Amino acid sequence: MTSYNIDTYDSDHIRAVFGNLSIDKTRLPSSGLTGAGVPSFVAEWLLDKLVPGNGSLTATEADKVNAFVSKAFPRKDDVNVIKFRLTQGEIYKLIALLKVRVKLEEGKGEIPEPQAQIPILSLNQCTISTDLIERHEMLLRQGIWGKISLGLLSDGTPEIIDFDPFQCSKVDLQAYANCRAQFSTDQWRDLMFCSMGYNPQHPNYTHTAKTWILARLLPLVEANYHLMELAPKGTGKSYVYENISGKLSMVSGGKISRAQLFFNARTREVGLLGRHDVVVLDEVQSLTFDNPDEVIGPLKTYLASNRYNCGGYQDISSDCSLMLLANIELDNFLQPKNSNNLVVDLPYFFSETALLDRFAGIIPGWKIPKFTYDMAASGAGLKMDFFGEALLSLRRDNRYFTYAQQHTKFDKSATVRDQNAILKSASGFLKILYPHLNLTLMDYERDCLKPACELRQAIRDAEYTLDDEFRQLSQEICVEAY
User: Fold this and answer.
1) Which of 10, 150, 331, 434 shows the smallest number of beta carbons within 10 Å?
2) C-beta of residue 160 within 8 angstroms of C-beta of residue 132
3) 3 state SS of 255
4) Distances (CA, A) of 201 to 91, 192, 210, 447
């Protein structure tokens, strides 16, 4: 394998290989777009359209972006201003997230029309043509960010006249693999790292730290893959999930209802797990449910079988992955205070091994340094919308799991769930680091299988502490590449 000095991060090579799918990551922090609530996968697209170039924005470029933002991105308190302009016959153009929902009601005697929603303006009953919906079917799922042309019908109903999406819709995975072949493994790892928004040249980002930060991408590349990250505050656990794709949904702490997560019987709308590719629950240490048994039961079923049933309605199947983020306390040596039971400070239901066993692993976030401004990406990386879509597209390719199966040997210490978890984690690392599947057995063992085992070992350690049943097995899971 070609060695690579991180001090020679080659932005020119990245631009030569990926062309307009790459962007200088210093553009975004100097733009002020994230401060306006614009996710990175939208902001980088806009920057490339408005002020293409490299390096921090000039004063002129910043003024151009700010003028555009003030005009095109509405605030919540702009809704009455926009409504007034619509009543004056104006076609108002804005950039926002657009969703479409279809509400079925029996006994109405007519087929309901789909209704568009613009959440930032709290507009939930806009008319939209079926032609626009058929062209952009993702509107019916997570919704899409784009340029919306909004008008008003004669009866006072807001109307979506036109829509131009911003998000990358399709990735040529063979072309992506061909691009990977033009980088060494270390160069590609640093490109992935920079594309996430981190500076691969920062001395605090060791090889180990990079491995666990890249592990945050596993729920994107693997369908029905469920993972936790436990870390002290300030390591940037949620950053990538908030910015990489509109197909992810993030919920921060507090109380989560069964209707929100699974199915709303009143509106008959499928919940988060049925609509998104990844659902991220942040601040899990403060997570509560009104009635935990009503949530934990279907959650265990879903984590095990990829489907759930709520309130007697038909089964809902999904390939959504679940990511849990939580803060934990460290000792004076910056190690977890309860290293053999990392979930001890989480809500009590995570100490039920029947639930815990359904997670593939725990990312050791205490091995990731706290984030500071000089750790932000400063070279060329992949545009966030393309990067996110490429990762999500890989979840449908089974060749990586097959490779892992063919090159992994378990002994009797590994249960079926241990084996499935480790194989899926190893498959995920293959997709992130070796999408072209050109690697040696040593590469696989070092970069994929070993971290996959470490992720799962944290689950086994907690189970061994919590439940006598697991003490019948050895505490260590033994796996080897062959």
Assistant:
1) 331
2) yes
3) strand
4) 48, 13, 11, 19
